[in-house]
Design goal:
Layout (H helix, E strand, L loop, with lengths): L10 E2 L9 H13 L3 H5 L6 H10 L3 H8 L5 H7 L9 H10 L3 E8 L2 H11 L9 H11 L2 E10 L3 E7 L15 H7 E7 H8 L9 E2 L1 E6 L4 E7 H7 L19 E6 L7 E12 L1 H4 L11 E4 L11 E3 L5 E8 L4 E5 H10 L7
Helix pairs in contact: 7-8
The structure holds zinc ion.
Zinc ion binds next to α10.
Length: 356
């Protein structure tokens, strides 16, 4: 592993990438028309999964139909060959995608008070930063920036819906020697949640702009890099009345070679769906990176899939559709995941009553 490669996928949103910025939205739409993303392909943007399944049951695909018309003499042969079942159709992966994508959300952490954030950045700086210096201007920019991650709906009660994501998206305001408590972090940033349904509405031009909903930082565990967000349930229902079923995290981590699916939402690329295999169940952070500035204390599981900035917090699923981890980061060849037993223990510590 290249130790000079950053491991954690913290993503800083470009200044001005507010979800309500119409200029950026137009650019995004243009780009999408030119080049559909992997997620759109996996998400069956052109045809629904149901219709494809019906075609398979009917035994013919569109291309095969045309072929038969020009070869009627051999129609029985073509009919027999028309729709061979293959190992490449990935029924299980697509089932997981269909049943879990509604639980995946985009999280944008917006500064509540950039002056407070700047004050914190100056406090954490190792060196004196004079006002007006280039370093000061850089910090001033950083204090206004939004941070992005992927989140997953992990629970709910009568009043709240809970979204789980990684903490290190906000690592610029804490470090090993100066950790931050949840109340102070909640004073600095507000998480804004966008769900898959509203992104689809935006892409279908039913929404004129990307619409997200404000939530609150609820719990924080820096050593395990986990952050819990609570969304008022009534507000969430008013924002989107479609289902966002909580993901159950498995009591068992898959063995090596097991296939897993990751659903992530890097910047403007929702529905990014990838499949990979477990290559190691627990690596120590000391074996992965020379430095550990945030004081990560959890083991990380290794998966042979690639990942991108803004994907931190993306859920990984086993073949039963249960959560088995959240993406921490990657080195370009492998991705590293906070494993399910760490997540479950953390939720228990937060008072979660976990069944299943
Ligand atoms: Zn929704």
């Amino acid at each position: 592993m290249n130790r000079s490669t950053p491991l954690a996928w913290g993503r800083e949103a470009d200044v001005g990438t507010s979800m309500h910025d119409p200029k950026r939205s137009d650019e995004s739409r243009t780009r999408r028309r030119e080049a559909p993303t992997q997620g759109e392909i996996c998400g069956d943007a052109e045809r629904g999964e149901e219709s494809k399944d019906k075609e398979r049951r009917g035994g013919l695909r569109t291309g095969s139909t045309l072929q038969m018309k020009s070869a009627s003499a051999n129609s029985n042969i073509y009919a027999a060959m028309a729709a061979p079942p293959t190992a490449f159709e990935n029924h299980l992966e697509r089932w997981i995608f269909r049943h879990r994508i509604e639980s995946v959300v985009s999280v944008e952490f917006r500064p509540k008070d950039s002056d407070l954030v700047l004050e914190r950045l100056l406090f954490l700086s190792d060196v004196d930063v004079p006002e007006g210096s280039p370093e000061y201007h850089q910090m001033d920019d950083d204090s206004r920036a939004s941070m992005l991650s992927t989140g997953v709906v992990a629970g709910e009660n009568e009043q709240q819906v809970f979204v789980l994501t990684c903490a290190h998206s906000l690592k610029q305001v804490y470090n090993l020697h100066h950790p931050i408590d949840v109340a102070d972090l909640a004073d600095l940033y507000a998480p804004w949640i966008m769900c898959d349904h509203r992104e689809l509405m935006f892409l279908a031009r039913q929404d004129n702009e990307r619409v997200s909903i404000e939530a609150n930082i609820s719990r924080l565990d820096i050593p395990n890099d986990l952050l819990l967000i609570e969304v008022n349930k009534a507000n969430f229902t008013a924002y989107c009345n479609r289902p966002h079923p909580p993901v159950i995290f498995s009591s068992e981590f898959p063995s090596r070679f097991a296939t897993v699916v990751m659903l992530s939402w890097p910047l403007r690329r929702h529905r990014t769906a990838v499949r990979g295999n477990i290559s190691h169940s627990q690596r120590n952070i000391d074996d992965l990176a020379e430095e550990n500035p945030e004081g990560l204390a959890t083991v990380l599981s290794e998966v042979d899939i690639t990942s991108d900035k803004g994907s931190s917090g993306a859920p990984l699923f086993d073949g039963l559709g249960k959560g088995i981890g959240l993406l921490y980061g990657g080195d370009g060849k492998f991705s590293y995941v906070i494993p399910t037993h760490v997540i479950r223990q953390c939720l228990l510590n937060w008072g979660w009553q976990y069944h299943g």
